[in-house]
Design goal:
- By secondary structure, the protein is mostly helical.
- Helices cover about 70% and strands about 0% of the residues.
- It has 13 helices and no strands.
- The termini are far apart.
């Protein structure tokens, strides 16, 4: 006689809606901020943390340089109009909107939060999330790859220069010491990575997953050091919940404006649907991975408040762009179902990447 075992009821797991991506890395960043608030590094520990943070920034930019394929970047120059449009959105339209927000000080934004908002407008675009969302929306993925790469490369030079010009003393000004610090911590490691790419490129490719953890761990160290310095200096009494709410509202308007400008502006410039998608996603977002290390170099002990707007904007752009990308994909499916012809990407697509940054 056989005994039947009762069928196990499958466990129901709590899942967030697919249109509401909460980046786990952002949660790790928030945890790091909480750790810095509870256990800030001070005294000798602060000196050790600052030295480790400086080394982490140099390592990050070395890895950026070693991973960037110069050949792919040069091949992408044939689509130069699209790349110039993305660069113009990232380093011209964004800064202009940031400067316009100066009128919100001090009624809406404190001077410190405005400095962080303006710095956010100077940061280069993302690579991973631009590719992922362009792929989901069925846009021109290779164009998004090249546009993100060009933006990151240009940001190595343009972001510190624009910060020095527009932020003045808040970012160290244009002193010889400040420029030397930028060159030594950002540009030299990046160029060293480019030079050594032919020897270390294979190793980086084989260990991509492990080095991804190194990337993110380094950024967490930079965040911990910056927020520890802020806690020790007592700067957090300057930020109230009401001010944070107003900052989020300002950033929502900024993101909406850039999404509209990149989409409709690209249409007025004569780009097809696939290219417009790449321009919208590459031209409307800012890189947390590049911005945090740069802020630690440019702002020093004042980096905590400078990076707060960027951290908030990062999560906001992921959530909003995920909704837009899926809507664009549905729109194309409807168009294809009616037999109409749309603008297809000039080359093949890739699988969307997880945990976009």
């Amino acid at each position: 006689m056989t005994v039947r075992t009762p069928a196990r009821t499958p466990r129901r797991t709590l899942r967030l809606p697919s249109w509401l991506p909460v980046d786990g890395y952002v949660l790790a960043l928030l945890g790091t901020v909480a750790l810095a608030a509870l256990l800030p590094a001070s005294g000798g520990a602060a000196a050790v943390a600052e030295g480790a943070s400086t080394g982490a920034v140099a390592l990050l930019f070395f890895l950026y340089g070693a991973r960037l394929s110069t050949r792919e970047a040069l091949d992408g120059l044939k689509h130069w109009r699209l790349h110039l449009t993305v660069l113009g959105s990232t380093f011209l339209l964004f800064p202009l909107l940031g400067l316009a927000a100066r009128g919100l000080v001090p009624t809406v934004l404190t001077p410190q939060l405005y400095t962080g908002l303006l710095f956010l407008c100077l940061v280069p675009s993302t690579i991973q999330s631009s590719i992922a969302f362009t792929s989901i929306a069925r846009g021109n993925v290779p164009a998004a790859i090249c546009a993100g790469s060009f933006s990151s490369l240009a940001g190595i030079v343009l972001t510190p220069l624009l910060a020095a010009l527009l932020l003045g003393n808040s970012a160290g000004g244009l002193s010889a010491d400040a420029l030397l610090k930028i060159v030594l911590q950002l540009l030299v490691p990046f160029l060293a990575g480019q030079f050594l790419r032919r020897w270390v490129g294979g190793f980086l490719t084989r260990n991509k997953k492990v080095l991804g953890h190194v990337d993110r761990g380094s950024i967490l160290l930079v965040v911990y050091t910056a927020f520890s310095q802020g806690m020790v200096a007592g700067i957090w009494h300057l930020v109230t919940p009401a001010r944070l709410g107003l900052l989020l509202a300002v950033e929502a308007v900024l993101l909406a404006a850039m999404l509209a400008l990149t989409w409709y502006g690209a249409g007025r410039l004569g780009f097809g649907r696939a290219d417009r998608i790449a321009i919208q996603f590459a031209g409307s977002k800012k890189s947390l991975a590049a911005g945090l290390p740069m802020a630690s170099v440019l702002f020093g002990p004042q980096a905590a408040l400078a990076v707060l707007p960027l951290m908030l904007f990062h999560q906001m752009q992921l959530m909003v762009c995920a909704v837009i990308a899926k809507r664009r994909a549905r729109d194309e499916e409807v168009t294809a179902g009616t037999g109409e012809t749309g603008d297809a990407p000039s080359v093949g697509r890739i699988t969307p990447m997880t945990a976009p940054r």
